[in-house]
Amino acid sequence: MSLFVSGREIALDKDGFLVDLADWNEAAAQALACREELELKAEHWEILWLLREFYAEFQLSPATRPLIKYTALKLGPEKGNSLHLNRLFKGTPAKLAAKLAGLPKPNNCL
């Protein structure tokens, strides 16, 4: 599988995640979101950048509970809760947000 972004072919794994994390940029995120029929808005970007910060700090993609806790810690409880994150990312916040942020699939996601 692959994705064409700005005239470049970007390799994806069988689940649609980037093969090479260095291929990520905002245009790639937009293209991945389009494949998921999701329009990225400011509140999505806030979580995507936060996830990339989490990955830079811990070298892993968080599962749902750590994602909620980290979001609450950094952005407050009104954004760091399952209702908010599920609404933004179609009920699969850890998996879909990691994909759109260009990160590996969280270990506990099927």
TrEMBL record:
<dbReference type="GO" id="GO:0002143">
    <property type="term" value="P:tRNA wobble position uridine thiolation"/>
</dbReference>
<dbReference type="GO" id="GO:0097163">
    <property type="term" value="F:sulfur carrier activity"/>
</dbReference>
<dbReference type="GO" id="GO:0016740">
    <property type="term" value="F:transferase activity"/>
</dbReference>
<dbReference type="InterPro" id="IPR007453">
    <property type="entry name" value="DsrC/TusE"/>
</dbReference>
<feature type="active site" description="Cysteine persulfide intermediate">
    <location>
        <position position="109"/>
    </location>
</feature>
<dbReference type="InterPro" id="IPR042072">
    <property type="entry name" value="DsrC-like_C"/>
</dbReference>
<dbReference type="InterPro" id="IPR043163">
    <property type="entry name" value="DsrC-like_N"/>
</dbReference>
<dbReference type="InterPro" id="IPR025526">
    <property type="entry name" value="DsrC-like_dom_sf"/>
</dbReference>
<dbReference type="GO" id="GO:0005737">
    <property type="term" value="C:cytoplasm"/>
</dbReference>
<comment type="similarity">
    <text>Belongs to the dsrC/tusE family.</text>
</comment>
<keyword id="KW-0808">Transferase</keyword>
<protein>
    <recommendedName>
        <fullName>Sulfurtransferase</fullName>
        <ecNumber>2.8.1.-</ecNumber>
    </recommendedName>
</protein>
<comment type="function">
    <text>Part of a sulfur-relay system.</text>
</comment>
<keyword id="KW-0963">Cytoplasm</keyword>
<dbReference type="Pfam" id="PF04358">
    <property type="entry name" value="DsrC"/>
</dbReference>
